[in-house]
Prior knowledge:
By secondary structure, chain A is an alpha/beta fold.
Amino acid sequence: MREINVNEIIPIVKNLCIDANYFIGKDLVAKIKEFYVKETSPTAKDVLDILLKNYELAAENRMPICQDTGIAVIFVEIGQDVHIVGGDFTTAINEGVKQGYEAGYLRKSMVNDPIIERKNTTDNTPAIIYTEIVAGEDLKITVAPKGGGSENMSEVKMMKAADGIEGVIDFVVDRIARSGGNPCPPIIVGVGLGGNFEQSALLSKKSLLRNLDEENPDPKWAEIEKIILGKINNLGIGPQGLGGNTTALAVHILTKPCHIASMPVAVNVQCHAARHKSIII
Amino acid sequence: MEIYLETPLKTTDLEKLKIGDKVFISGTIYSGRDAAHKRLVELLENGKELPFDVEGQIIYYVGPAPAPPGRPIGSAGPTTSYRMDPYAPALLNVGLKAMIGKGPRSEEVIASMQKNNAVYLAAIGGAAVVMADSIKEAKIIAYEDLGPEAIREMKVENFPCIVANDVQGNDIYKEGVKKYKKEGF
């Protein structure tokens, strides 16, 4: 049994919130450069060029890449031999988010009530926290700030087994076609297949955590990711929806077994500012 | 084409703009997004005065990040514009000349722009530090309680945009996609 004090967790979450918002991953920069070479629209090339400049400036000036510094989505893998001490775990995570968004000059984008009141909570809490118990005595924390513009273009559909893989591909491509320039393309398309209604949505979000230089470990799904990516980039939407060949940088699929009667499909759209930072304590 | 514009905008400035033109704006612009638009349109519906004169002006759909020390504003890229579509025609009808945001507009807004000789300019979503660099001053002039959604008066220099809807009713989001769409699925 290993003890971890919540006071150790707070500054870690704080720093992850700041780092995720200031420093884009090298994998994303490499991917945009790769698509820049293939892009045929001059306007699209200009846009990609400005995005690259913006990532550099954000890191240099220590400012958030995007003003929408997101809802703080936090994935925690807790080793079953870890004992959290010194206070409440959820409170500690939220305290870290609060401190990070304040100290990092990050925008507070949470409202207290979804419909009636919609009053800003002023510290970007509550975070959305997913915990998973795993083997061992490590604690892994991932902070993935998620902007509203791309999240709004996401969707879950309960499909029929008879719709087959073609049905799934058509649904995903159509979801992106209907999104147009709204989610800040070039996007990353997270697809969750299987499980049930809510697990498919979580799978689609989790798929976005995979680095862009990593292939899907299952060659069958790696192939389908390539097929969907090709179809999406044939839509012509392009960076910011202004037309071009670079609509999506990648499609990521995660799957789970499901019920004999169901075929849940979830699409979680991620803007080009695909931010996530992890640490293992 | 690269065009330099100063605010307040004149109809003669706007008539020559074509979709795809690169525009650099200098002068005063105003920020406003979802919650502020709701309030502005409620004022108009009740026959009350707006907190600023929109005649010839530009509203930038932005909710900036807080200003770090030594800077007038934090990261300040555009937000998605369709959420302001229900409110935009009412403001265009009272003299608003341009909106800056990201993503396509509704048919109603495009028709209203055509009717009112106004334009929609696309800023680059997620290029928020680049945008912030061309904002030289910013102050809240209304709705401070809305936090990032408050209305700010901002002095900009060569603020970069792309013409997305011109006064002739052309739409880059339709034309651009048409041009680069490939068949085969």
